[in-house]
Amino acid sequence: MSEEQRHPRALTIAGSDSSAGAGIQADLKTFAALEVYGLSAITAITAQNTLGVRAAFELPPELVEAQIDAVLEDIGADAAKTGMLATAPIIEAVARSVARWQLRLVVDPVMAAKSGDPLLRPEAVAALRGVLLPLAEVVTPNLPEAEMLTGRHIETLEEMREAARAIHDLGARHVVVKGGHRLDAPIDVYFDGTGFSELRAERIETRHTHGTGCTFSAAIAAFLARGLAVAEAVAEAKRYVTEAIRHAPGLGHGHGPTEHFWQWKQSKEAQTR
Ligand SMILES: Nc1ncnc2c1ncn2[C@@H]1O[C@H](COP(=O)(O)OP(=O)(O)OP(=O)(O)O)[C@@H](O)[C@H]1O
Ligand SMILES: Cc1ncc(COP(=O)(O)O)c(N)n1
């Protein structure tokens, strides 16, 4: 097959969310909406809905590694992302796979769900910082995650820039400190090791932001798989997640999911007009 005909493909290594707003399910929807073939390696199974996480079962690290090997030996991935990794042994297994397969990696350092329920064991933060971040092409912490990774309080844009530099010093080549948890506009700070820029968007007043971090990092991986440079991939992913939030279908009694196929819906509406 010629290079032009080759279909881009991306791998998500993350937890399953039964309500399908976050985790593996959000990642695969994002890949599909962006016309990238999605592969998955599941790290944990959660029983959750828009109100919270009821139960979680962590899979053995060998099974996570076996899933990654199975799909990469056969199909291959142009980019990969991690989400919920749950335990230090899973993080170490994923790091071994990333190094062995030389994956272009986006790390969403998921620590807790929007409901506050933990998705990473506290003792695993050290492995995330020491073992996985040095392998990351891009890392996308939200404010609480950036605070955990740096041990600093972060509120202002200047503090977000300082945190991005400190996380870059841990080995991640590009850092996006996300501002979804800010009180005012959801401005994200991007640092490529040399310069800073801001990813700006209006705040959409909604409670339906379940899985926004998963969707953003999956969109970055999808755009990388499609061949965009990192800065472009991050900017396009910001536009994608903003529209996904704007078109949220309003499901559930808590933090509902976002919408991935608004473009498709709009084109269908245009056809029937
Ligand atoms: N209400 C909102 N309106 C517009 N953009 C938002 C809103 N909330 C979050 N975002 C954007 O969505 C992206 C994800 O950011 P956020 O800080 O919510 O991540 P997160 O906390 O990791 O998400 P998750 O809840 O999935 O863990 C960022 O680009 C952020 O600026
Ligand atoms: C399996 C899984 N992975 C990630 C998240 C984080 O997403 P959010 O913070 O939006 O709940 C989640 N809730 N569940």
Helix content: 40-55%
Give me the CATH architecture, please. 3-Layer(aba) Sandwich
First-residue to last-residue Cα separation: 39 Å
Enumerate how many helices there are, as a single number.
9
Strand neighbour order, sheet with most strands: 3-2-1-4-5-6-7-8-9
**Whole-number average pLDDT?**
95
Summary?
Pathway: Cofactor biosynthesis; thiamine diphosphate biosynthesis; 4-amino-2-methyl-5-diphosphomethylpyrimidine from 5-amino-1-(5-phospho-D-ribosyl)imidazole: step 3/3. By secondary structure, the chain is an alpha/beta fold.
Describe what you observe in this structure.
The chain is α/β, with parallel strands linked by helices. It has a single domain (9-201, 210-272), classed as UDP-N-acetylmuramoyl-L-alanine:D-glutamate ligase. Helices cover 40% and strands 18% of the residues. The protein contains nine helices and nine strands. It has helices spanning 23-33, 61-74, 88-101, 125-132, 143-150, 157-169, 212-225, 230-246, 262-272; strands spanning 9-17, 37-48, 53-58, 79-82, 105-107, 138-139, 174-177, 188-191, 196-199. A nine-stranded mixed sheet has the order 3-2-1-4-5-6-7-8-9, with helices on both faces. A hairpin with a 4-residue loop joins strand 2 (37-48) and strand 3. Helix 1 crosses helix 7 (212-225), helix 2 (61-74) packs parallel to helix 3 and helix 7 packs across helix 8 (230-246). The chain starts with 8 loop residues before the first strand and ends with a helix. The structure holds adenosine-5'-triphosphate and (4-amino-2-methylpyrimidin-5-yl)methyl dihydrogen phosphate.
